[in-house]
Amino acid sequence: MPGPERQARPERPGRPEGRSEGRPEGRPEGRMERGEPRTFRAPSEREPSRPQGREARPSPRAADTARAWQGRDTWRRNAWPARATWREHRAEHWERDHRTWAQRGGYGGYRIPEPQFVSRFGISHPFLIGTRPVIYQGYPRFRCGGYWFLIVDPWPEFWVDDWYMADRVYIDYYGDGYYLVNPRYPGIRIAITVFL
């Protein structure tokens, strides 16, 4: 005995057979048109908008609290000491000489507000420092995105002398503080602080 016949769906004009219903032809899956309703996706299903290394977003911190932390100099403990010249800030053995913010006791400096950070910094905003950082209070300092940054780690001995002119770098926040990242050398993060 033959089973019940499947009722044929009426074909919609202008829609080729076999095409998925909600997606206009010629548009890649997942791309939205202006005015198209958004579909809710659970946080676990969303694609990360930042690189995998960015584990936490920094919470805002008042400028006076950040200045007090800078003044206490606790971030210098067991870390790269202040030096007088740019060349002296080159590491002899970077793996041994550098320290993460967690190893320094945590980042207590100024935190850039998230909207400004997203619009000016991170992997999607690489830049050339352009000029050799100037030594300020014993550490190299440079300006980017309206902020001054102090490089509190040595720069790796295997980088070229003028990497600040040759390599595009970016600033990111990785769970425990701000770092300068050079995509040419994956896995190398130089600790920096926003300097007020």
Structural class: alpha+beta
Order of helices and strands: HHHEEEHEEE
- Uncertain regions: pLDDT < 50 for 5+ in a row? 4-56
Shape category? globular
Instruction: Give the count of helical stretches.
Output: 4
Strand order of the largest sheet: 1-2-3-6-5-4
Taken as a percent bin, the fraction of beta residues is 5-15%
Radius of gyration: 25 Å
In short:
This protein is an alpha+beta fold and 196 residues long. The protein contains four helices and six strands.
SSE layout:
Blueprint: H1 63-72, H2 94-97, H3 114-120, E1 134-136, E2 139-144, E3 147-151, H4 163-166, E4 170-173, E5 178-181, E6 189-195
Antiparallel strand pairs: 1-2, 2-3, 3-6, 4-5, 5-6
Write up what this structure looks like.
This protein has 196 residues and is α+β, with helices and mostly antiparallel strands. It is built from four helices and six strands; from the N terminus they run H-H-H-E-E-E-H-E-E-E. It has a six-stranded antiparallel beta sheet with strand order 1-2-3-6-5-4, with no helix packed on it. The longest helix has 10 residues, at 63-72. It starts with 62 loop residues before the first helix and ends with a strand. The relative contact order is 0.17. Mean pLDDT is 74; it is low at 4-56.
